[in-house]
Specification:
Radius of gyration: 22 Å
Bound molecules: adenosine-5'-diphosphate
Strand content: 15-25%
Mean pLDDT: 85
Largest sheet: 5 strands, mixed
Number of strands: 10
Strand order of the largest sheet: 1-2-3-5-4
Amino acid sequence: IFENIKHQFQSKALGQNVILNCDTPLPDMDAVVITDEIKLTQVLSNLVGNALKFTKKGHVGFGYLLKNELLELYVEDTGIGIAPEMHEEIFKRFRQVEVNPNRQFGGSGLGLSISKAYVELLGSNLVLRSKPGIGSMFRFTIPYKKAGKTDESNKPPFKEIRSEYNNFRTILVAEDEDLNFKLLVVLLSKIGLTIIRAVNGLEAVEICESGQPVDLVLMDIKMPVMDGYEATRIIKKLRPGLPVIAQTAYSTDEDKAKAFDCGCSDFISKPFRKEILIAKISEHLASCP
Ligand code: ADP
């Protein structure tokens, strides 16, 4: 659904010089859910269509985040925004912010009332956050009810990874945010990995250069002093065999492509599911001696 919508609106976005980002963090096999495809497609395409209609510069982003047992779907833009007094009004039938007869934006004023009704039929609420001149974000949730097999064989083999990697492998975590780093420590120390930290890209390079034993690098992309792209480029020159997994929040396809160009072996979008992070780390550690 997300890919189709991106495809549907890509040329419109390009035509008006607006970047269209689509972020779908789960691997395909985990991203097939039981829901009403037609309603979901209609809602997303209404919201993305509106976002592009009311955005003349900047970007329109859409995608989902996995939050507990829910997928939170969002469509955000850096467009004209909506005044607070209109936040409820625009969900009513035929209501539009622009009312003068020489309106510059077309439309029937029905899209949002239909979208709201569909989202409610899907068991959620369509929530708006918006500021005039800054942009808007519409979001709603659907249950994360995976289609197909739901038994344990669908999940990454958490237990096996644990025993396999108890043997003192070291991960260098390049992460400037303390909170993110603490979260990773909790996650990774559970599976017996030793963790060292760099607070920016330059420090990560220096640690790799110093000859300290490092088996894998988990590289945040947006960091001060030297970003993750540059740091990865240098580290891969020093140690071409060292796996580097890039991690970044709200990543775009371009971010991913750039990370791979710089030599990253893999990419994970934040916030990530711990099983996915651990599966990726396991895969890359297993492939190096
Ligand atoms: P329309 O066909 O007019 O787009 P909608 O019901 O989809 O009808 O939207 C109602 C009104 O809400 C729009 O006319 C516009 O004034 C406002 N609106 C909707 N989405 C956005 C957005 N992303 N940014 C700014 N205004 C928006």
